[in-house]
Recover the amino acids of this structure.
């Protein structure tokens, strides 16, 4: 008997006949999924939902700017870089939504993150208003290392992609058919309180997180 | 690294900690922060107690079908191209990981660079000493873990491992460990220390052969392992190493993403008082063919180490624990002696129950005495784990086995020990005393303890009004 079989047998012997339990487990893992209890904060809609997303993200030191269309992004990014005293350069993946844009004076390089990345740009998969949380999926369009290696991380999100709660993110994820290595939920810039419980931003990941929220 | 349990000497450890000024200074800075923040976070979600019930129910259902959920989880990991390894004991887990690391080493001498995200299970199996003994270089990347690694210690808190260390001590360690920087540099604040650690560790992520992380959850539906962090180090560890190894104990599995949401809603609020941590990362398998980054191999080591033994028994409830740390943040005993006094990797009330379950009542049987039975741990536990009840069970077992040192028998010595320190004792008894009737019913054995009255049985504690926990604590101390 392998270690696996011994462990499973030990569990089964304590838990009783697996056959009688299997139907409930299969149901829960399939269509009979147990709906989770959604608190009020995960039930917002319309303008209130967008407002909650912004307020929650800002409460954890993310910054948010709003834009009428994706075409505004190059100018907005350039302004952001200037205001933050960063070079006019950004690292991004092969995100198709960015492909048609004329970035003007901003130099956009493509690929995974390197040791030193003053600014990186990602496209969010969607978001949850509940806690001001962005959801990103890894892949060539949005290399996961850009989310963690950028000193300042810029993320583009459409207002229509903001779900009320985590369940909305899961539904989108299941329906998308995406199978990324990582699904990353990101809520504000990186932080630590490991030295005397004092909150410091930018522990290993970004010191700043800026969200370009685009109406659509 | 002191991995040899010293839980047997809890009383001596506690005495030493109480008279250790450094520990006391550092611990003085802890309590109030977490307690107040949790209360505020909880107040923002009116349904919080219902969410705790839901989280408890998710875990109870999962534990009652643990074999089936583990099978599904394993199948999903394999479908993603990942490998699942089963470890019955700590030694098995070490051997499995030593094997993976040796395979992954790129240097000619077969030695690997191993980066680690924070993992309590890796502490449980004493992984670092094993890796180091085999000649591999281990780098803890969580800032708190990095600090205690430099100090050669084990964590003193499950979510704030270096909580017992002062800023001045960190500074001293950094000066010694980072000779590449100007010796005359100053560290005016914590931020300057964080920056230096960031610079040093950033390089290390890119050198790693293997990145080892823990898991806060394993999702049977999708085969994902989940890490919940604030720093981002766990993500850099798993995405930049050539091989990603996840070490997790069996009971981390939950059925679906929806169930994970329930756990997420109580975890960070209970732990640090955040609505959610900065990063919650769901990882499935190795990098995809088209991915520009990510590990080439993905391994999950599933550790039993005594847990299947706890199923269906008196201590099964403990397997619901999500390692949030709320019980120790609210424990007057923990707050006064710190985590190291508990003598093994899991401190505080959760450690007092788990330690004897995992390493035996002979080793850990003293810990359940480290309680004033004030009941705050159960009152705040997001998974509604009846910690005082289980501590009492262990005490009874230990008593039956006559393992209690003679001086502490009948007198329930540690209780008396704490009770004799009026500041600590009064503080503890200001709060609810959980089911004191039990002791009242025992032929006045405890009647000399001044527990006459004045306490009420709150089920939970409101946000501190007026003075904070920390202020009261500071005033009452000594
Ligand atoms: S026992 Fe409860 S309060 Fe303590 S760490 Fe576990 S889940 Fe948190």
């Amino acid at each position: 008997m392998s270690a696996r079989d011994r462990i499973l047998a030990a569990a089964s012997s304590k838990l009783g006949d697996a056959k009688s339990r299997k139907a409930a487990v299969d149901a829960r893992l399939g269509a009979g999924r147990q709906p989770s209890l959604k608190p009020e904060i995960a039930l917002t809609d319309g303008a209130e939902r967008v407002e909650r997303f912004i307020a929650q993200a800002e409460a954890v030191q993310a910054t948010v700017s709003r834009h009428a269309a994706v075409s505004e992004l190059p100018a907005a990014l350039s302004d952001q870089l200037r205001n933050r005293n960063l070079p006019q350069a950004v690292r991004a993946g092969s995100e198709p939504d960015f492909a048609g844009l004329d970035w003007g004076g901003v130099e956009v390089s493509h690929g995974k993150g390197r040791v030193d990345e003053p600014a990186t740009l990602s496209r969010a998969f969607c978001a949850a208003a509940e806690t001001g949380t962005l959801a990103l999926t890894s892949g060539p369009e949005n290399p996961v290392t850009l989310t963690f290696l950028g000193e300042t991380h810029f993320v583009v999100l459409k207002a229509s992609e903001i779900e009320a709660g985590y369940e909305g993110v899961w539904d989108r994820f299941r329906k998308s058919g995406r199978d990324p290595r990582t699904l990353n939920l990101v809520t504000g810039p990186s932080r630590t309180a490991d030295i005397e419980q004092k909150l410091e931003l930018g522990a290993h990941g970004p010191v700043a997180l800026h969200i370009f929220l685009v109406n659509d | 690294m002191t991995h040899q349990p010293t839980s047997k000497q809890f009383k001596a450890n506690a005495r030493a900690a109480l008279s250790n000024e450094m520990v006391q200074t550092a611990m003085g800075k802890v309590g109030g922060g977490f307690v107040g923040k949790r209360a505020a976070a909880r107040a923002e979600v009116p349904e919080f107690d219902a969410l705790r019930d839901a989280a408890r129910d998710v875990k109870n259902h999962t534990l009652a079908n643990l074999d089936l959920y583990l099978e599904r989880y394993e199948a999903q990991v394999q479908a993603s191209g990942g490998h699942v390894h089963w470890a019955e004991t700590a030694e098995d887990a070490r051997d499995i990981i030593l094997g993976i690391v040796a395979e992954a080493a790129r240097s000619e001498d077969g030695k690997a660079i191993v980066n680690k995200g924070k993992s309590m299970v890796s502490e449980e199996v004493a992984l670092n000493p094993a890796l180091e003994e085999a000649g591999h270089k281990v780098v803890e990347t969580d800032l708190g873990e990095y600090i205690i690694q430099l100090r050669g210690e084990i964590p003193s808190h499950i979510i704030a491992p270096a909580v017992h260390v002062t800023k001045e001590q960190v500074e001293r360690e950094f000066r010694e460990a980072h000779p590449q920087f100007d010796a005359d540099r100053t560290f005016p604040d914590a931020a300057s220390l964080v920056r230096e650690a960031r610079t040093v560790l950033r390089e290390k992520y890119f050198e790693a052969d293997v990145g080892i992380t823990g898991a806060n959850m394993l999702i049977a539906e999708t085969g994902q392992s989940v890490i919940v962090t604030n720093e981002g180090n766990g993500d850099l560890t798993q995405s930049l190493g050539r091989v990603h190894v996840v070490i997790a104990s069996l009971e981390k599995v939950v059925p679906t993403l929806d169930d994970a949401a329930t756990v997420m809603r109580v975890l960070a609020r209970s732990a640090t008082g955040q609505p959610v941590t900065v990063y919650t990362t769901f990882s499935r398998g190795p990098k995809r063919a088209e991915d520009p980054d990510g590990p080439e191999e993905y391994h999950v080591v599933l550790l039993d180490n005594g847990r299947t033994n706890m199923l269906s028994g008196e201590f099964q409830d403990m397997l619901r624990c999500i390692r949030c740390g709320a019980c120790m943040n609210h424990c007057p005993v923990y707050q006064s002696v710190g985590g190291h006094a508990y003598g093994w990797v899991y401190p505080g009330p959760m450690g007092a129950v788990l330690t004897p379950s995992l390493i035996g009542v002979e080793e850990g049987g003293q810990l359940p005495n480290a309680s004033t039975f004030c009941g705050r741990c159960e009152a705040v536990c997001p998974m509604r784990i009846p910690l005082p009840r289980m501590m009492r069970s262990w005490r009874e077992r230990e008593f039956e086995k006559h393992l209690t040192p003679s001086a502490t028998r009948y007198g329930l010595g540690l209780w008396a020990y704490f009770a004799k320190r009026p500041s600590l004792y009064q503080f503890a008894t200001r709060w609810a005393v959980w089911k004191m009737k039990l002791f009242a019913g025992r032929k006045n054995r405890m009647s000399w303890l001044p527990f006459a009255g004045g306490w009420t049985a709150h089920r939970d504690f409101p946000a501190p009004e007026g003075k904070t926990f920390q202020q009261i604590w500071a005033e009452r101390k000594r």
About this structure: Chain B touches chain A through 104 residues (CB under 8 Å).
